[in-house]
Write the C-alpha cells for this entry.
Amino acid sequence: MLSEKRRDNRNRILREGEYQRSDGRYRFRYLDEDGKEKNVYSWRLDKKYMSMVVLHWEKYLEHIIEKYNKIYRIQMSKVTLHVCRHTFCSNMAKSGMNPKTLQYIMGHADISVTLNIYTHVNFDDAKDELQRVVNS
C-alpha cells in the first residue's frame, strides 16, 4: 500500500526529516557529528518554497558580501550568522539590557554562557563604564 505524501499547510510536500508544527514553524531533524538527534526550526520559505534554515541564510549573507566586495575597494571580511549573534549579544549587554532578559532572548539555559562566551567587552567598554559610574 502506498502512503500519501505529507504536506504542509500550503499543500507543499514535506521532505524527509521535515515537519510542520501546529504554530506553522518548520522543524528539521538531523544527526550531528556525534550521532545525536538535533532540530532546526524555521518560519520562512524561500523562492523555491524551501524552509529558510541557517545554511540558506549563511549562503545569502555570503552572496551579499561578494557583491559588496566587487563594488567597493575596502573589502568586507567574512561575516557569519554566528558572528552576528555574538555582536547582538554584546551590543545588548553594553546598552544595559537586563542579563536575565538577554539570556532568555539568546536561548541559553545558563547565564554564564551568555555573559562569558557571547558578551565581548574591550578596554574602551570598561573605561566608558567606569566613567559612567564616576559621573553618576
Summary: The longest helix spans residues 54-71. Residues 87 and 119 are 8 Å apart (CA to CA).
